[in-house]
Amino acid sequence: MRPFKPTAGARSIASRLAGATTPADARMVKAGSDPATYRLELHFNHLVSSGRLAAAGKVLDQMPEKNTLYLRSLNRLELHLNYLVSSGRLAAARKVLDQMPEKSTLYLRFLNRILWGCSRSCDLAAAKALFSAAARRNAKTWTIMMSMLPADDRGSDAVSLFRDMLREGEAPDDVTVTTVLNVPGCDVGTLHPVVTKLGFGASVVICNTLLDAYCKQGFIAAARRVFLEMPHRDTITYNAMMMGCSREGLHGEALELFAAMRREGVDTSHFTFSSLLTVVTGMVDLYLGRQIHGLFVRANPSRNVFVNNALLDFYSKCDSLGDLKQLFDEMPERDNVSYNVMISACSWNRCGGMALQLFRDMQTLGFDRRALPYASLLSVAGALPHIKIGRQIHAQLILRGLTSEDFVGNALIDMYSKCGMLDAAKTIFAYKSDKTAISWTALITGCVQNGQNEEALQLFCDMRRAGLSPDRATCSSIMKSSSSLAVIGIGRQLHAYLTKSGHMLSVFSGSALLDMYAKCGCLDEAIRTFNEMPEKNSITWNAVISAYAQYGQAKNAIRMFDSMLHCGLCPDPVTFLSVLAACGHNGLAEECMKYFDLMRYYYSMSPWKEHYSCVIDTLGRAGCFDKIQKVLDEMPFEDDPIIWSSILHSCRIYGNQDLATVAAEKLFTMVPTDATAYVILSNIYAKAGNWEGAARVKKIMRDRGVKKESGNSWVEIKQKIYMFSSNDHTNPMIDEIKEELERLYEEMDKQGYEPDTSCALHMVDNKEKLESLKYHSERLAITFALINTPPGTPITVMKNLSSCLDCHAAIKMISKIVNRDIINTLLLRAIPGLNDIGKALLGPVSEQVMVLQNIGTSVLVSPNQLPDLHQLLAEAATLLNIEAPDLYIRQNPVPNAYTLAINGKKPFIVVHTSLVELLTPKELQAVLAHELGHLKCDHGVWLTFANILTMGAYTVPGFGMVAGFLEEQLYRWLRAAELTCDRAALLVVQDPKVVISVLMKLAGGCPSLADQLNVDAFLEQARSYDKAASNPVGWYIRNAQTRELSHPLPVMRALRD
Hints:
It holds the Pfam family DYW_deaminase. By secondary structure, the chain is mainly alpha-helical. 69% of the residues lie in helices and 3% in strands.
């Protein structure tokens, strides 16, 4: 019989029975429990219940790890610590940590938990103090600290922390590396090799994070390199790369990535389609977006709400309201984002009723009232405009206690401004405790919208004094204000500010600047702004199309529209509005209908009232009154005063009394206090000789108390506004103005001007009608400007009412007469025998000699030879809208440049090498622009002729006797031509100091002294000369000096510039 050997369990129980000191202990041992462990747990629970968590931690360290009791106790201890942290009692939690032994297994758990609590409460200072004082740290500790850094300096601090972690020998894990790479602004290029060296290069998660970091920081080439080097790519890889390409505008590459993703069989996700929709939204490609929509439906029958919202946003930005509504109706699930997108789209497309119904639906369905799109609804109320709805929404905001929200206050200012209640908008602005730049911009924009342009400018100054920097939207509104006032000086100051502040790089600011120049009569500067913009979107193209439309250049407007389509941009309703307006200004009825149908049927856009108004106005200008009725029948809107006003204006052109009466009666009902309809109908009757009808309309005006607005014109000279009314006698210079006008009328009579007396709408004799036309306000303003500005200076006159037809004709003729270059050139051509002299001096042999001499001794500038000079010439030629001539560089120690043009030959410019060495690139471009100005103004052949004639007249047999007679005329013409071309240089370089610097260096500069010259000192010298030459003796000496000069004196040219 074998002896009994107890098992291990039996020995354990036996030993515990042997150590049992009480019957209770013995019973616990028999039941399978350890009395010592039980007493330890009781002690632990007592410590935790009494809040002595540090002591409880010490007890926990004595328990066997991985034991059930240990895990249960650990869980209870962490629950208590979590309670301290989550309730914000971080000081108490920190006290527990300080009492805990550093070598305790719980130390790092507690440290990281408290750091996480600091992160939740955004207490960075406490976290830094705790982190610095910590005796031990692990990877999680460092990771939490990296994630807490503030956004403004996270990048550099995160990299610094990561390096400190490596120096202390702590090995980072996947989470640490992902965290540091995801920190905005981190130096991902520096971290990339470190991460690879640490052995994370093969991790798909880390590679995806690297790729995404490169994309977010705009390093698309580096991201592309990571993408190509990855051994394995997943859905996240492709999604990140597509989003990166989309941000950089590489829409084609993003689409290629999607195609490659499908070829390689990589699964798509909701984020894939969301990224893809971001791409096509940037492209505004409706057709492609519909294809992606179809793919998404097939791949995801359940129709994820996140992607559906992205689709809604896409259709909204493509202005495809039909697709948008259909998708919204078919969505199985909608959230507040879905409704917000729909309401915003309805607001933009002027579907106020639909927007309001959607808002009511949101309230009925129980969406969180604080998340309702109040700002969008206020925008709808402003766009309608519907003050009653706006006030109801305002009342709801007061009940919900949301009026203190900044975005709500700004939306209220905007709504009240658009509804014409500017005083209410000012009141809300005044009560705002925190006036941000957006608040100021909202009120400034409101003032501009309500015609309070002077007040808008004053608010802008107040905003600057308050220490706030205007943003792109602010500058845009102020530029609209300056364009409305025709104050080009303020507009140019804003241009300088935008350039200095870096806002010129913005599409938004550039487009507003373009629009401002166009409305201030500076089309060339508007086009130059467009050409200089580094980036263009649909707003930019709309602005340039609108600019051409304002100037009646329909062909250029349509050309720009075609160019926009070639660039892959989709037109919006504003684009079509500008194109239709351009067609209308030029009477292109067929083209207008073509683009109207294109908008409706190809792009599926619902026309606004303004589109119908443009079409009706165009048809009316063309006299197609039968087609007007058809368009009116198709129009889904009620009668609109703008449309009937267009019809009435068309009736005025064609004298259609019957339809004019109908249109006027409509307007009398819709806008009974507006004098325009009464005046136009009265004028139509008067022009037709129906004086009885005209008198009847005027009686109706008197009975209703309607007063006609007086016509005013104003002009800006040296940043001061001068205003005139018809037959105005208030200006101190009125006698001089009338005298100059009489002189102009004499010139106009010689050139065949015949006044249109039908524009004088009074029952008086013909002589009185002629007299009344003479002193219309715009003619007085123009004449005043002619007297007070240098010859050749462009004049911009603004009016509050449209000009009469006779004024249009008169202004065109005055513009032609006062053009100094044309007059002087005509005087040259009128000199008897001059053509014969020209043939002798500019015969075939002379032409050949001149051409061969320059080509044989100079270097031709081209894209492949001296490309920098070629670029300067090309830019200047583009800005002056002229074909670039050939440019030659010639070795010569005398700084000079000249233009040669022979009849029937391509002109060319010659620049001496000494001039290239003397001037900066910008100054050299000013010289090239000056020479191009000669060609632009048709000086070329006459300039060549004049230069040769003054040198060669004495050497040609028989012509010496006429040289003295010719010199004075020729030199006078040459000096005038030089001043004109200085303005061409100014137009190109847009900086008077650059042009003056050129004149200064030509007067007394050399390469070694050029840096020491001072433009301001030279201008002071010019003023001193002008003052000295102003007395009779000085005047005589100056004339004697300049009589035989082909160029004006440099100091006098500097003052002119």
